[in-house]
Amino acid sequence: MPIVVNIDVMLARRKMSSGELAEKIGITATNLSILKTGKAKAIRFSTLEALCRALECQPGDILEYTSGE
Fold first, then answer.
1. Fewest CB within 10 angstroms: 9, 22, 33, 58, which?
2. For position 1, what pLDDT does the model report?
């Protein structure tokens, strides 16, 4: 898939655990894991907003498009 999810990168930069992030944004650790691994088919804008707020970043810091070549 040409969309890369960089939640792990942002977690490392913020020195935050996945569990802490899941709690801050109000989703389960399992659902956060699905997002982190890129297995999610969609993401709600409210979840993206919560991720950006908790990680103090922009949506482009979390989601990246690659050409897939």
1. 58
2. 65
Q: How far separated are the first and last CA of the chain, in Å rounded?
A: 10
- CB atoms under 10 Å from CB of 62, counted, come to 19
Question: What amino acid is encoded at 43 in this protein?
Answer: I
- 55 close to 14: Cβ distance less than 8 angstroms: yes
Q: How far is CA 28 from CA 1, 15, 25, 36, 67, in A?
A: 24, 19, 9, 12, 31
Tokens, residue 64: 């990246």
